[in-house]
């Protein structure tokens, strides 16, 4: 009997000592698409987690609730929320930042388009056209 009580106490003591507070949720963009690798961190701690491919995350901490969390991802405006208790949150929607909006609207490029070929700046216009379409150049100067 004594052995049973000792084993029961040893098994339950880690559960009683380690009480972690947990929240989980999903981070999406304005179109409802999941955001991969968005960082969710608790302000004032070094606890940071990242969303998976479906935009889902689970955040655990020993800190008592009434957390302030920051959510950030490249191309989106940073958001901050207060968490008063654990459980599953509603989907968190991040808004596009100004640079991402310009790119979506077609007013920005990822990189600058070529105006002349970098290796042959003095080629005639018709050769420049073929060079930009990436047709292979033959050894004697013709095109296939």
From TrEMBL:
Keyword Iron listed? The answer is no
Q: Which SUPFAM superfamilies match?
A: Carboxypeptidase regulatory domain-like
Annotated signal sequence is: 1-19
User: Looking at the Swiss-Prot or TrEMBL record, what is one Pfam family this protein matches?
Assistant: CarbopepD_reg_2
Q: Which UniProt keywords apply?
A: Receptor, Signal
Question: What InterPro entries does the record tag this protein with?
Answer: CarboxyPept-like_regulatory (IPR008969)
**Protein name as it appears in the record:** TonB-denpendent receptor
């Amino acid at each position: 009997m004594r052995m049973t009580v000792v084993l029961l106490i040893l098994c339950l003591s880690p559960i009683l000592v380690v009480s972690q507070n947990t929240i989980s949720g999903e981070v999406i963009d304005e179109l409802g698409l999941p955001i991969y690798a968005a960082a969710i961190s608790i302000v004032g701690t070094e606890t940071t987690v990242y969303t998976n491919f479906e935009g889902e995350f689970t955040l655990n901490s020993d800190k008592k609730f009434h957390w302030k969390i920051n959510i950030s991802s490249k191309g989106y405006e940073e958001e901050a929320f207060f968490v008063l208790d654990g459980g599953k949150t509603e989907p968190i929607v991040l808004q596009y930042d100004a640079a991402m909006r310009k790119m979506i609207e077609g007013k920005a490029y990822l990189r600058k388009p070529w105006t002349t070929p970098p290796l042959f700046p003095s080629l005639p216009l018709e050769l420049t056209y073929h060079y930009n379409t990436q047709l292979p150049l033959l050894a004697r100067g013709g095109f296939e």
